[in-house]
């Protein structure tokens, strides 16, 4: 079946100009993702890390700059790209290609320092990379999106990009600008589900817009390959204007406004795409770069997609793409349009409707801000020299914990969040799965790296024992750890129970007192003044058992917290284990205890999982 055989069929297949009614304008949410006036943008920062470093160091934006992580380039700014330098280029090579190249190494954490710094000659053997600067800038960017467009939905998609659903603010402007779109009144000759009157004959596109051409005759006008039609005041296309086009042009104005806010406030240039859905917005965002605003009107969708090598499409670049390419000897989207939905679903399972739709530029996924629940923070290091003995461990745990402390404290500046658990993951040569161990992470008012170190070291001992223990255990394999990661999971607003112990850990730690502990709280035990050890009690809220914890008198608040935490965590582990055996989900293997899916176990999802799922379901 040829989807382009007839005009009517093409319209139907691509869903290019569905009927627009007053209801679509006046209650945009009612039709949700099916609203024909849906306008979605994707903003992506140009050479993001490079721009962050340029701003930090106040480097002239026209100079060629690369950002280095050890000896790999991780960001290349556009002036440097003019010399042919790309992300894959070796540093030495890049410096030959461009002798004046400005090279900035990312900040790194060094053992013993509690913040990342720009060290002169960091090396992978003893430093850990910090991406804190980029994360912070990312947060500022998202906040500007939200404050500039309070009625738009903003979804952060990665460190340097976000989707914006412009539908609601666009429709507000639409009804202000076009009085003929006023809502029906009882005396109106039309009602909410009536089709809108004819749209204006012309549109003025914001001058920043690159309009993707609707057909080959529009292409190459400026003598350039793959040239788009640059907006020049009015609509350049011969196509009849639709209300979708009008909405898109208003969306493009808002898109420019928000991109300009980023430029004015933070000094960053961005590239953006705007279209009827997320998939197309993301795709068209890279149509022209940098500092560009690419607009894909509905009428331009078929021409734009048909010539596209389909394996360039996200999620079609992997195994599924390879299978499709082979099965249909296909290269472009057009080559796959002959597969009808039945055939697609018979071959690749019912979920492959997703592929069928994406090839036609249809995507009903929502732009939705991810709720900040169950957030996790993970600091990880691939070890150039494996950890083989206890003595190798602490330096890396300290470096990872310093990073987590910075990140958690930053998150706490924005809101009173706290992690529920801390988890340690290690990957060992010869073991297929990483080992993981987690424990609750109790609240402390002053969070430092050392508090986290104490908790992480305890997990380390539980996971790997000590040199002495391993030496006496004939079954213990030689330790050879090549990756170590520490994660906070369930980072969210503090719960009442967690806050309850805050007083104890505060800087003005009260002296020993006679009070007995309350359930779920920690209190001190009566202990003679002169003792160097103080005993404090912890009462478990689950079983009401009271456990005494010894702390040193000269321990600071953090150290006490860590010691108490260790005991508390151990006791909670006991409950955890009990619960596991009750649920009969305990998996014993390789000397480690796992539950599937375990709370707080950070399972790294392979990028292709979703698509492979299609095959598996088949
Ligand atoms: N990044 C990375 N490693 C990768 C991909 C990306 O470290 N394999 C980092 C880059 O340093 C980059 C940021 O993530 O600055 C955003 O990535 P991306 O948008 O893909 O590239 P940019 O460098 O921003 O370049 P572009 O202008 O092409 O978007
Ligand atoms: Ca980018
Ligand atoms: Ca990006």
UniProtKB/TrEMBL annotation:
UniProt KW Chloroplast keyword: no
Major localisation: nucleus
Ranges where the record places region Disordered: 212-236, 507-533, 585-609
Compositionally skewed regions (Basic residues) per UniProt: 591-606
Alphabetical GO biological process terms: DNA repair; error-free translesion synthesis; error-prone translesion synthesis; mitotic sister chromatid cohesion; response to radiation
Pfam family membership, one: IMS_C
Comp. bias intervals (Acidic residues): 216-227
GO terms under cellular component: nucleus; replication fork; site of double-strand break
Record keywords: DNA damage, DNA repair, Metal-binding, Nucleus, Transferase, Zinc, Zinc-finger
Family matches, as PROSITE patterns: UMUC, ZF_UBZ3
Subcellular location, record wording: Nucleus
Cross-referenced InterPro entries: DNA/RNA_pol_sf, DNA_pol_Y-fam_lit_finger_sf, DNA_pol_Y-fam_little_finger, DNA_polymerase_eta, Rev_trsase/Diguanyl_cyclase, UBZ3, UmuC
UBZ3-type domain segment(s): 533-583
Membrane-traversing stretches: none
Domain UmuC residues, every copy: 40-317
GO molecular function: damaged DNA binding; DNA-directed DNA polymerase activity; zinc ion binding
Protein name as catalogued: DNA polymerase eta
Biological classification of the source: Eukaryota, Fungi, Dikarya, Basidiomycota, Agaricomycotina
């Amino acid at each position: 079946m040829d989807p382009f055989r007839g005009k009517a069929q093409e319209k139907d297949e691509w869903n290019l100009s569905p009927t627009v009614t007053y209801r679509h304008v006046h209650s945009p949410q009612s039709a949700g993702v099916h609203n024909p006036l849906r306008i979605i943008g994707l903003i992506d920062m140009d050479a993001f890390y490079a721009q962050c470093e340029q701003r930090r160091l106040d480097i002239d934006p026209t100079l060629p700059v690369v950002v280095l992580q050890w000896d790999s380039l991780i960001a290349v700014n556009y002036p440097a790209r003019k010399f042919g330098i790309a992300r894959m280029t070796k540093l030495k090579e890049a410096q030959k290609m461009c002798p004046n190249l400005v090279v900035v190494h990312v900040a790194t954490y060094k053992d013993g320092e509690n913040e990342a710094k720009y060290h002169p000659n960091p090396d992978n053997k003893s430093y850990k990379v910090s991406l804190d600067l980029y994360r912070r800038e990312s947060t500022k960017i998202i906040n500007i999106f939200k404050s500039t467009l309070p009625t738009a939905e903003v979804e952060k998609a990665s460190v340097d990009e976000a989707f914006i659903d412009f539908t609601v603010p666009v429709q507000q402007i639409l009804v202000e600008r076009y009085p003929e779109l006023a809502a029906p009144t009882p005396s109106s000759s039309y009602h909410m589900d009536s089709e809108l009157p004819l749209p204006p004959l012309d549109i003025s596109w914001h001058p920043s817009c690159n309009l993707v051409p609707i057909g080959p005759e529009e292409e190459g006008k400026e003598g350039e390959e793959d040239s788009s039609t640059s907006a020049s005041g009015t609509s350049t296309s011969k196509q009849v204007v639709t209300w979708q086009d009008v909405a898109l042009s208003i969306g493009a104005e808002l898109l420019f406004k928000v991109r300009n806010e980023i430029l004015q406030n933070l000094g960053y240039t961005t590239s953006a795409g705007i279209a009827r859905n997320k998939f197309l917005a993301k795709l068209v965002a890279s149509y022209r770069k940098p500092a560009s605003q690419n607009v894909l009107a509905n009428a331009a969708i078929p021409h734009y997609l048909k010539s596209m090598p389909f394996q360039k499409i996200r999620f079609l670049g992997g195994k599924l793409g390879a299978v499709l390419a082979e099965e249909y000897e296909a290269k472009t989207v057009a080559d796959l349009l002959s597969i009808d939905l039945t055939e697609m679903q018979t071959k690749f399972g019912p979920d492959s409707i997703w592929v069928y739709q994406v090839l036609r530029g249809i995507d009903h996924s929502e732009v939705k801000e991810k709720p900040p629940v169950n957030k996790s923070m993970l600091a990880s290091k691939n070890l150039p020299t494996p950890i083989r003995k206890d003595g190798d461990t602490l330096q890396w745990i300290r470096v990872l914990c310093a990073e987590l402390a910075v990140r958690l404290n930053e998150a706490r500046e924005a809101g009173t969040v706290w992690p529920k658990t801390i988890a340690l993951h290690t990957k060992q040569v010869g073991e297929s799965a990483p080992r993981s161990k987690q424990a609750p992470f109790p609240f402390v008012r002053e969070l430092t790296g050392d508090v986290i170190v104490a908790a992480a070291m305890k997990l380390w001992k539980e996971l790997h024992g000590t040199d002495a223990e391993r030496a006496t255990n004939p079954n213990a394999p030689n330790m050879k750890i090549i990756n170590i990661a520490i994660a906070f999971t369930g980072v969210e607003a503090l719960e009442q129970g967690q806050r309850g112990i805050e007083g104890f850990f505060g800087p003005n730690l009260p002296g020993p007192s006679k009070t007995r502990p309350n359930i779920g709280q920690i209190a001190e035990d009566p202990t003679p003044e002169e003792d160097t050890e103080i005993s404090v009690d912890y009462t478990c809220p689950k079983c009401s058992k009271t456990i005494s914890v010894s702390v040193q008198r000269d321990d600071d608040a953090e150290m006490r917290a860590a010691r108490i935490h260790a005991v508390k965590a151990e006791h909670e582990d006991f409950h955890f284990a009990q619960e596991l055996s009750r649920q009969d989900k305990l998996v014993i293997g390789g000397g480690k205890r796992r539950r599937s899916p375990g709370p707080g176990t950070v399972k790294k999802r392979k990028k292709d999982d979703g698509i492979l799922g299609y095959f598996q379901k088949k």
